[in-house]
Fold each of these.
Amino acid sequence: MSLYQAIQEERAKYPAESNSAVLPALRLAQERYGWLTPDALREVADALELTPAYCKSVASFYDMFHLAPVGEHLVEVCTNVSCALYGAQQVLEAFESELGCRAGETSADGAVTLRTIECLGGCGWGTIVSVDHHYRTRVQPEDAAAIVEELRGGN
Amino acid sequence: MAATEIREVVLADATTSLAEYEASGGYAQLARARTLTPNEITDELLASELRGRGGAFFATGRKWSFVPTKDMIPKPHYLVINADESEPGSFKDNEIMSRVPHRFIEGCLITAHAVDSQHVYIYVRGEYTGPYEIVTAALDEIRDRPDIRGDVTIVVHRGAGAYICGEETALIESLEGKRGQPRSKPPFPAISGVYASPTVVNNVETMATVAPVLAMGAAEYAKLGVEHSRGTRVVSISGHVANGGNYEIEPGISLRDLIYAEHLGGGVPGGHTLKAVIPGGSSTVILKADEIDVGYDFDSLAALRTAMGSAGVICLDERVCMVQLGIRVSEFYEHESCGKCTPCREGTRWMTAILRKLEAGDATAGELDLLLDVCDRINGKCLCPLGETAAMAVASYVAKFRDEYVAHIAQGGCPFGDSSPLDHVLAPVAQGHLPGRLPEGKRLEVVHG
Amino acid sequence: MADQLVTVQIDERSIQVPKGTGMVETAAAAGIEIPVFCYEPRLGPPVGACRMCLVEVEGMPKLQAGCTLTAQDGMVVKTARTSEQAAEGQNSTLEFILINHPLDCPVCDKGGECPLQDLTFRYGPGNTRMSFPKRTMEKPIPISPLIALDRERCILCYRCTRFSESVAEDGQLVAINRGASSVIATFEDEPYKGHFSGNVTEICPVGALTSTQYRFEARPWEIQNVPTVCGHCPVGCNITATTREGKIKRVLSRNHPEVDEGWICDKGRYAFNHLVALDRITTPLRKAGPRRFEAVSWDEAIDEAERLLRGGGATTVTALSGGESVEEAYALAKIMRQGLGAHNAVLPETPSELGGSPLSAIRDAKTVVVLSDVPVVERAPIVDLWIKAARRAGATVSYEVPTGPIGALVTDETSKAAGIDAEHVYVLPFTPNGRGVADAWSAAGDEDPVDAMQRVLIISGDEAATDPGVRALAVEAETVIGIGMFEESFRGIADLVLPGTSYLERDGTTVNLEGRLQRQRRAVLAPVPDVLAWLSKLGERFDVQLSPHASVLFDEVSERCFGGVTYAELGEHAPLPLRSAETPAYPAVRADMPRNQGSALRLVAYKPLFSGAAVERTPELEFQQPGAVVELAPEDARARGIRNGATVTVSSNGTSVELQARVARDLSAGAVRIPRDHAGDLHPTVEVSP
């Protein structure tokens, strides 16, 4: 199904005059292109009969939308209070050394983007690491290597 | 003080399977509710004294009763479920949606009937892939069950990473495809919410409580808990405790028991001692270790000028630097400030800057007072609670651990060295950074007439 | 009970206002200021963002945003004047705003007329407690050739983005990012292209959005502001022309609540630099070769004009552009009709007798019908904003005649209004003052033209000189006399050209599409003599008495056409109606709309707003010209499987062009719209294919 058609299906879930499909449409475009390129935003705008500026305005409000290129996989380490109390910073640093890049960057091979993220809602089971949007709980620094290996191996 | 036992009301008979849920009496209350009038259900909820579990603690039945009839406002009614659980320390809705999705959905359908709505939107936070998949699968299961679905359409709407969307008017804006910035009230959602139509916004746990309330009967449910805090609550416990997790208890249980009881928090591990507790998510005023002999209920916590909030209890042991806690919490609110109103947008950023200076040992005593003054100037002036709770929370750290703040100034640095687990924790960076960069060669050319 | 009066106490004063009145207005009625930044009622419901308007309300524990409060009976409100808490609140807001504001007032164009500056003096802290480096950003950024954005100065009041989203509805100027990282931006640094973009510089309460034309050009204490009326289109927006040292420096809106509500289009705002264009005609010109003119003295020119006109006599034809003032047209008409007996004129259009309602009545209508092939915004831009305002207020806007009562009808042709019963009717003329020019022509005489060979043609105005119909006449004529501003308009056709002036350089009156008679005032002296001055001299040659003063000429016209109304009665905000109310004679049967045959579509190749002599001489407006876009009605697009934004081929017998498709909801099925310059050689009937 084309992105256009997929977006129209999302639109159909909401009242005709509403712009409620913007978030679902941006999510679909990001799933398709990896990140919200200017052309992807134009495509979403055309499909929704909105302006690209409007779509970018909305997208840039939300942390999950990428407005710059990202790696094939996304590793997000929660560093909010509870996870930090369990040692999230050490988990983050383990990923940094495993990937050879800093938080906010993508590994040199383009495989993994690493970043920190605010509370993921798993505070009792920290440190929470969201790997391609699926939670890993009680992650310890020594788990980083296996997770990275799993992602690279899955290429 | 109420009993310390774990209750099974919301989280009873956990199952994601429709067949199992029905086998244990699931959806029976929905069927019964549909034989009642909306007013009868609302009255039952009023009698149960159930209050909203999202944090504001507003009586659920009253909220429903504010929705005008379709004669008064001839527009569709919308029921919007706030599943945007993002308060640091809270993860109960995550567990409720994952373990009892059908009880949650049954509550939604009963509520839809009670407020005469045929349209339900479940706004689930974008990061919650697991709960989203479980709830979606549960909805798929009832797709071919018109006896359950009735004439109600349920759409799961996924957020995309913005704490502020947990605020009901920001959630509505986001659901309408906009930037999630809170609206000025009035009008209140009950009159003009999503699509400028009457709207009820309820929390996940509240919804998952509706069917049990009907099953038990309002009178039985209202026997649980203590005055003004009836029923059960699913409390999230995290941080420096042995057994982090969600526990359904009766309000009124002592905070000490919540943290130390073997079958609950299990105490502070590793031979450390409790230093402080954030009782209701990071937006709430902190309690010192000697303040935990208090009932975990609305009135008792209010007496200590704090709140149950969204029931996220965060325990901190003696290693934690309170200035670092201030930084981390302030950074969070700065990051999540929507940018609409001035005091929150500029004030949280300023708070963080002063806190960092304090932590670095570069601040003066005057700047500690300035921090409190900045908090004071944010407080009571914002459009929504985000900035205000940030200011109150940080001000409480200074008020209750002032010696530690003063020590940073006196010693010209952090007395904890790098031993505090919050030392140099990297906060997420803001979306987009600054898009002000111009392509090469593009500069303002001044046109002279 | 909308008009129920309630009593509110503000500070020590009691005031009665209708229930529900906004608190800012309520306080103002009591003579008390509630300071604001984000509050601007023209942008829609208040948003309560900036928190500048905090007030104390009895019975409410927290300070309240004054802008979102409405007057309720018995309410007791205290502003910063009497409430320490409110004063502290406003002081806090300003302190927060200023921690990242650069305070570069000495080099800021807004300095001296800046709400932030003014409110800081009145309510703000005297010094700063912020010891951190301020946020710095690249600046200024051109968000278009017309507008510069300084993000450091921006206080994020969101007025500009609200204008873009909910007044102009162009969705181009937006907020990007969240929280303290939020900035105002366009998409990917593309220019803010839209008919109304310049309004954001005017509503910006700080120096964040400024006009590039005005950049470093003047200071508030060295300028004069002249209240006048725009002469670019038939709306006649009320404007203020800012001048310094005899030059126009900028044009601002001057809110006429019935006409423009304080919004003006970019043509009206920015196209004034044609007054000082290098190719402006500054002396009379006489033909010196096939495509060449030579300068002649004024004495020679008047002699020559007299000689040529005597040659034409009663057969002389006058072609008017519709850009003249009533007085200019009248003076010219009087010479022709009373001096020469030449009653033959080419009027720019057949004026409609319909109308007489204020434009603001569109916004208040429950049903608005638009029957216009030409986009309304391209012909009368502000009318488009009123239609949008009506839709936002809940009106049904229809592009076909619906059943049931019609509140307002907007059409591009009088004939389309025939037989339609609408409370308010608006016909969009082609020219700014076509109505007034027609009135002036009829005021000067009522004889019928002689039927004879037309040897001499007078062309008044550049727009007439570039009109294909008039040019065809010029080819036929033996002699052509032109009156205009630019040589290029007359080259190759005129034998004598007399310098014309612009609406900003003259006194006079103009009649807009409502039929509203409005005064234009001279903002700057023209580099040439006033047209009325030399017409008065030319009149003498034919024993026609003409005052060189617009006011005297106006009285003559007014006596005959405008019921004797005087200049003074027009005032700075002219009222409606000033003409005697006549019952327009509607044709009894509504003319049939053109119908299409088969699948073919009717092509509307329209003249865009951003075109013409003035725009061509304003390089910074070039980017505003419409793109290569074809607009289709939703059903036509659907029937052809054409998606919004797709590239399509528009073809007619033997010729085709590639254009980008836009699905336009303001277009009725069966028609497609293409800007004139992109229509190529397409025939009136086209097909569009993916």
Note: The longest strand of chain B covers residues 233-239.
Amino acid sequence: MGIAFTSSAPKQSGSPLKSGKIVLVLLLPGLLYLGMFFMIPLVSLLITSVETPDASGAIGMYQYGFDLSAYQHVITDYAPQIGRSFGYALLATVFALLISYPLAYFVGVRLRSRPLIQKLTLTLVIAPFFISFLLRTIAWKQIFADDSVTMNFVRNLMHLDPSFHFLGTPGAVVWGLVYNFIPFMTLPLYTSLERLDLRLLEAAGDLYASPAAVFRRVTLPLTMPGVISGTLLTFIPITGDYVNASRDFLGSPDTSMIGNMVQADFLQNSDYPSASALSAVLMVVILVIVGVYVKRTGTEDLL
Amino acid sequence: MKEFVPAGADLELRAIRKEFPGFTAIENLDLHIPAGEFFALLGPSGCGKTTTLRIIAGLEQPTSGQVLLGGQDVTFTKPHERPVNTVFQSYALFPHMSIVENVAFGLRRKKAADPVAKAMDALNMVELGHVAERRPQQLSGGQQQRVALARALVNRPSLLLLDEPLGALDLKLRRQMQIELKAIQMEVGLTFLHVTHDQEEAMDMADTVAVMNKGRIEQMGAPEALYERPKTAFVSKFLGQSNLFVGEIADSSGDSFSISVAGNRITVPKHRAEKQAGKIAIGVRPEKVEFHRTDPAAASHLNILGPGVIKDIRFTGVSNQYLIEIPNVGDVIVFAQNVGISPVIELGEKVWISFKVEHAFGLADLPVGDEE
Amino acid sequence: MRKLRLGRFALPLYSVIALVYLLVPIIYTIAFSFNDSKGRTNTIWQGFTFSKWLDVCSRPDICNAVGTSLLISAVSTLVATVLGTAMAIALVRYSFKARSLVSLSLFLPMATPEVVMGAGLAGLFFNLGTGYGYTTVILAHVMFCLSFVVVTVKARVQTLDPVLEEAGQDLYGSPTAVFWRITFPLLLPGIVSGALLSFALSFDDFIITYFNSGGAVTTFPMYIYIAASKGVPAEANVIASAVFILAILIVVGTQLATNLRQKRLLAIK
């Protein structure tokens, strides 16, 4: 993926890579940790998703078994949430890309001559990261509250019905998603753009390309790795988000996403198989997307 | 930690072979450098000279073969246990330490007494005592190079390895550093192994030069010997320039033999030829060749070729370089020292060339393109 | 020519607007930390006051939550940084088989949605019968922070020319000496960046924490979430604002300090 949080170019003097037993000491603890606390939970999820209800009928008690009814239930009954999750994610990702690219271009290309200002502006761009993500969302919730100053202003300006509201609509959810995930989109774009060799753009101009053509034929293709990276890093987490869509924040029961159902089933209804099945479905889609990406570009640049 | 030999030590490489996945960097290397010598390992990039250096420093292990330092087998000794220090091509000064701390680094690791005092002495020797407290990033390339040298020398290693240390310096600075390095080596009496692709540098500074090509040493000896009597086509072209003529050995009489090239007879003394039968390449250095406007009289001590035509004339300040084309023979380069009176000659003029038989040399192999 | 003039300003102008948009909720949150709100609701402006800042722990449950968050984040960061730095060094400097597998294993946690990881881990702990609490939350946090530490430190390791370590060996440095005197000091900025990133991610995490706390542990984000339906008191804004200001100061401070140091170094040349 090439998310380098510092954007220095790698510098090697041609010394060969080392080898030896010490590699195991360096890698194993981390790998074992991931194996234990990432891989196994995923497997556990699959196992839970096919459990059967306990014979006693008590809520929250399950037996190991192989019962696919949870999947059936999840795919049919939660189809709207599944559709919404991917739909909102797609919309939010596209908007995030459109908003972030020019901003990343400005900071990564235009501000190159003033490195200090560049770093400070970049800090401003990721500043939202530093304030609690829940509070950011609540801020928008209060700004767009039905009776807020903003909403009154908008209603007057556009001569809308007093019952016009923004909160609780898909629009509000997408707005929140876009806002919260812009840093995920901007950073990979910035990394790509910051490394863009401007002399190539000059050369294109020298060869009679208009600014639009330079962008389409040189800048965009060269920054495509950043675009893809940012798109994946934005789209995938959004599909699983539930805070923005929850009715305590920007959404309503009509905007619930996969995450809301998983949370409800897991934490409130103790319906572990359903929650796990839904998570598994989501995970499978994501693995497919990641698989396609890895097949295309290999694992070298993943990190 | 091994005791360090106070003066320089002998270095010996026996049957060193180094293979990397996909290619062999060093085929079969035998080398002996006596203590106290300034030795140059010369060759084009990719010939294996840097790999050889790294094997001697301990940064690489040979696939097979032995490295002996002062008689001791150090082939598998770790780099930090070898009494060898390296001046790296990129200087490799530690950016997070001051200059004096850089120089004192090795001394501190060996727990030597008074590391700072000794480091300052070394810095003063390279005339950089006044920058002791600065950081490497604040120094110019030439200064960094001298610090790298001081950092290595302060440890009085048995063997000092220099990996193209002057490559990044401009011409004037390079000339200056060449003189300084040689002076330091002679003063301190250490063994220096200098790796470079710059043949002038090697010939200027070294007591012995080894020319390396494709993982092998093609020829080794004093610079003059290498220059006046190259033994392979590669050496004849890499070290200076050469005119080469290829032909079957025909007349062989007494202490010389000849080949015939397009009717021209070229004779070489037997003691200056690497082969005595078959097809041979005979060469001569351009500065040993003269040209004449008229066919010179035949003489037993001269090789005469011609007539040819002046194809190109170049003025390089120190000399005039003429390129003469002789039909069915090829191009011959002639250097004429600029002594104030250049012959008034023009392109296209007909000339004959001559050179002394005793300046000719016979190679062991044939130039690329003329192989049998 | 007119067109060119306007064109040059379009991008900076857009960027300013975009930055303002990004900062709106931040300014809103900080502003409302000074709101003289009564009770729990903090939605309508009722006047400016410093009282919430001065008396931030008047609601003990907020400060308890912050304390819990700090503890969990500190421990998680420590573990994740140590494990992650080791892996980053291995990835850049050593050759080994299964390199693709390691890269993929580190990448997947970054690409997995939090609900999936949260539910998975909660299920694991449930099946193991360990119960929920500080330990489970910390274990969960280390897991998702690890990859980010690796990515950050890896970028720094890649800027470190291996020839410096070779020079260290050449100058009689044992492997331990080379690591502590050359590698570690030069990697430190990257390690610190990785640690800060890990701390920030851990402190702000909600979803995974919520799934694995079992009600016994309340972190600051959890406090806010639970309070969201009833009303988030201004003290929460105070905490969030304080964290924000501290974070900005650290980041901007280090940037200015580095800049100053570079300038000073290059001035004496």
Note: The helical segments of chain B are 49-57, 99-109, 115-125, 141-153, 171-188, 199-205, 223-228, 233-238.
